Structures are given as structure tokens and as C-alpha cells.
Task: structure prediction
Amino acid sequence: MSALNNPVIAVIVSLVIAVGYFTLIDHYLMDMQGLDFWYLFRQ
Amino acid sequence: MGVVTRKKLLSIIALSAMVVALLLPIVMALPSPATGEEAPVAEGAQKEGEKVEKARDVYYKTEGIVVGAPAPKTTDSPTDYPRYNFESRVLLWFANQQHLYYGSFVLAVPIFCMIIEFMGVVTKDKALAKRYDQLAYDFIKISLTAYSLTAILGGILIFTFLTLYPTFFSYLSSIFRPVMHIYALMFVAESGTLYIYYYGWDKMKEGFLKWIHLSMSVVLNVIGTLLMFLANSWIGFMMSPAGVDEQGRYLGNIWHVIHTALWNPLNLHRILGNMAFGGGVVAAYAAYKFLAAKTDEERAHYDWMGYIAMALGVAFLIPLPFAGYWLMREVYAYRQQMGITLMGGLLAWLFIIQATMIGILFLSTNYYLWQAMGRMRGAEKYQRYIKYLVFLLACGFMVFITPHTMVMTPAELKAMGGQQHPVLGNYGVMSAKNGGINVIITTTVLSFVWYMRGNKVSTVSWARFGNIFMGVFFTCAYINIIFLAIYGYYIPANVRVGLSVPQVATTLSCLFFMFTLNSMMMKGAKQMGPIEWGKISARSQYALIMLATAFTWMMGLMGYIRSSVRLFWHVNEIMRDNSPWAYTHTVGFAANVISANVLFFWISILFVFWLGSLTAKKAPVEAKVGVPGAIPQPAGSH
Result:
């Protein structure tokens, strides 16, 4: 826990979790509707 | 048999009677079940040996035996549309709206009562439990007087239908005959349960009897909710009929008639709306009492009451736009043209007004929370950040209320180079609006989180990480919402429409995860000082009144929009409205009628509050202002 309380490490870990989570949300919730979240990037 | 045992027995009998009363209408409805196998034969139509006529359900596309008469073809005559020298539709509109306001109120308040009474029963702090109990009692007392008025307004509504729209009402009641009878029986059950619940309060205030009393509130709310679902089936049928053929002949399957395409979205939307509305009205009542209070104790009590009512109301207000989104989605799925009329055509401007009202609701809520931070020591640390929340809210609000096209003179049109403003016009599409409203709701969640931790300092070992994680999570949520809103401009409409789902999920993630994280962090937190109930600015109370008034106005507006979308149909595509009033009113006229309805409701509810104060038996329980431990903890983790 003490390492996590280091602000730099805390920000990095938080960013990894939050960005990863929201990317998964975007991808899978579009996929569940039969839609492609990455549509623009595949063009 | 001891007195206590006899009381227990009597209370169990009363509760059983309520459950039986609840089940009775359902049992009575069983002979004509959803299967439609034993459908009654139409009056005088089926003689022995006569050929059975079959037809196809307009919605379910199943075949059924015709057991009803076709929908009448009305003409503009005194037979079908008897009238005074006034627009009958406006009279019906008024009666309907007032009944709905009161109906919503008396449906919502017992649910609050149940929640608060439950909180009182489970809390270990006896003083706090007593306060919760008193509060729940205060709530139900207000509801009881309003209940009588609801019944009277229901009677007025039926007479208005019978006298001004007899042919239409006759057709509707021929389809919904069993449902209307069940509705009436449920109403009797609701009345009986409510009176026993209210008058049994003092006699059933402790131990096992209190649990029985609490169970009664559950039964009461189940009945109330079922009543609303049944009433919703009528409006659902008028918008998206089912269970009848294309001539409007009933096919004997009552479940099809009830369970129309829009019934469930309407049920969810209305129950959430009623709760938010009920919370707003009770908060406004508490605000009024706060402003009129003479002593610090009274001020503390009504400040607390206002906060709880507001918090409960807002808890239901937050998911309300999502329920509305589901309803609209189902409207589009049912008839695309209906959806376009609502959101992109004739009624689109009303949706801009609705967006403005929704924005006002959230702005008022946030403003109240920021003001409420003033009554707790330690919350000053957040004051300097509030301006950033104001910025986010203002941006979200402005995008949310920007119309796609403007009403302009030819000269203005020419000057602007088209109906769409070159810059602002971009904000008039759903992609931007979804972004706007999600930013507003996420900011409201953030305000709540700040409020809940206002006077506390976390003592958990990972507090710093928790705070950083929370900040990063909210920042990423904002970025994701705004990114999805912008991304929508670059992809085709059929893909873009799906982006609203991850946007909503982002907002809800903030709501659930951040509230949970905050609760974990605040467990055993150090208190900087108590919440000084009653020591809040008067402005905050006006924000509560604003919240309630805006909600009342919006409810009237949305009711009008939902009803108007049928255009010139009594029952969409089945029974045409041939009265002289089968046209859509101008926005200005509709707004005036809605305002008149709101004004009448608030004047009449003030009368109800005044009546309630005449029967006041108990003075508010003394609030121990500033004493830690005696402070109510109304918002979950708070």
C-alpha cells in the first residue's frame, strides 16, 4: 500500500485502470449492440 | 391472552387482510387469463352455429377470435363530442393533469415513507431511529390529505371523460372492462391499507409490531405501483395499441391489450418520475416550513427533512433521463414516424424546453449541495473548486439546450446563411446532447461525493491513493463522455446511435463505483465537525422550491408531449379523433396551459399542507444541533 501512496505511482496505476476500464466499456457495449466501436480507425 | 399478544394477532390479521385484498383482484381476473382461450363471446354476436370470426392482432400479429365491436367512427357532433362553449380537450387536459400530479405524489410519498421507516427500524441509534420514525410519519400525514384529493380528482376526470368524450370513453372501457374493475378494487385495497397503516402508527411502534407495520407499507406500495401500471396500460394502448385488429375489435386477450409496446418503458419512466417529483414536493414543503420556522429546532428539523427528500428525489432523478431514453428508443422501434414527430419534427421544440427544465433541475440540485456544504465544518476546502463544476455544468447545459435549427425571419435566415448556425448548429444533434447531459449528471455525482465527505477526513491507510484514483477516474470519465460525443460526428448514424450506451455506462460507473469507493474511504473517518442542521442559507431553500416547481412544470410538459404525439388519433391508427380540437396547439398556448396547471397544483397543495398542519399531533422531535452521534446520516455513507 505504501508504494501506491506515492503520487506518481498512484497516478500511473489509476490511469491504467481507468483508461483500460473505459476502453473495455466502449468496446464491449458497442459490440453487444452488434456495432463496431473502432469503425473510424479501421477505415 | 395478554394485551401484547392480542395486538400481535390483530396486526397479523390486518396484514393478512391486506395481502388478500391485494391478491383478490388478481384472483378475480384469472377466469379471463392472458391466454385468451376462454375469451367471452361478444354481446349478441355469437349465436349457436354462427361462424366464429377471426382476426389478426395489429401488434402481436397473432390470430384471435373477434369478441369486441370495431372502434367507433366519430363525427363532429354533440353525440360523440358534447361540449360547453370551451375547448373540451383543455378541460380534459386540466382534469387529467391535476389527477396525475396528485396521483404521482401519493404514490411516491408512501415509498419514501417505507424507506425512511425501514432506516429507522434498522438503525441502532435510538434517538436517530425516533427521528426517522417521526419523519416517516410526517411524510405519510401529508400524503393522507392529498390522497382524498386524488380520489376526488379521479372522479372529476371520469365525469369529464363521460360527459365530453362519451363515445371514445365507451370504446376504451369496452376494451379495458376487466382492467377497470380490477383498478377500482385495487383502489379500495389501497385506501384500506393506507388508513390502517396511518392510524396504526402509534399502536404498532415497537418490536415485532413495528415489523408488521413496515410490512404493511410494502403491501401499500405494491398496490400503489400496480395501480399505476394498470393506468399506464390505458395510455400505452392509446399510443401503441395491441390486442385488437385493425378495426379496433378486441380479440379476447387482455394481456395483449395491457402489455403493449410502450407499457414497460412507460412504467419505468413514470415510477422514477413520480419518485423524483414526490421528493421535490416534500423538499419544497420542508423548505417552506424552514423559511417560516420560528425556532432553531424547527429549522434544524426541516433542513434535515428537506435534505432527505431532495436526496431521495435526486436518487431517482439521476436514472430518469436513461429511462426516458429507453422510452424514446421503444417509440422509434414501434413507429419511427412517431419518434421523428417527437424529437425531430412537430414537437421537437418542446424537447428543447424539456432539456432546459432538466438542466435547471440538475443546476438547482448542485446549487443546493454547494450551499449545504456551508453547514459543515471542513467543507470549505471544496469551495474553491466549485467554480470548475459551474463551468462544466454551464458547458453541458448550453450544449444540451442548443436547438438544431432556429425560428427566424427571412432576413435573419439570409444573414446566417441557412437555418443552421455555422457553429452552434453542430450542438443541435443527439451526439452532442448525450455528451452534454452526461457531463451534467457526472458533475452532479461529483457534487454529491464532495458533499458526503465534506466534514470528514479519511483515515484508511490507502487514503492518498483513493483520492488520486477518484480524481483520475472522474477525469477519464469526462474525457470518455466528451470523446464519444465528438467521435459521433465522424461515424455513420447507424453506428453513432450505439455510442449513447457506453456514455450512459460511464456516468453510471461514476455513480456506483465512486459512491462505493467514497463509502469505503469514509469508514471510520475523522470528523472535522458536525453537520449543523438548520445553519444553511435561505437561498438553498429557494433552490429546493425551484427544484420542485421545475419538476412540476416538466412533468406537465412531458405529459403533453406524450399525449400530443398521437396527433389526430384517440387510439393511434385505430380510432380517429374527429373533434374540432384534433390539432396540435402552438408551443405558446401549450406552455400557458402547463403553467396554469402548475400554478393550480401548487396553490392546492399549499392548501393540503395547511390542512395537514391543522391536524399536527406531534411537534418535531428536538434536533440536537451540533452534537456528534446524534446527527442523522441520511445519504448512505454520509
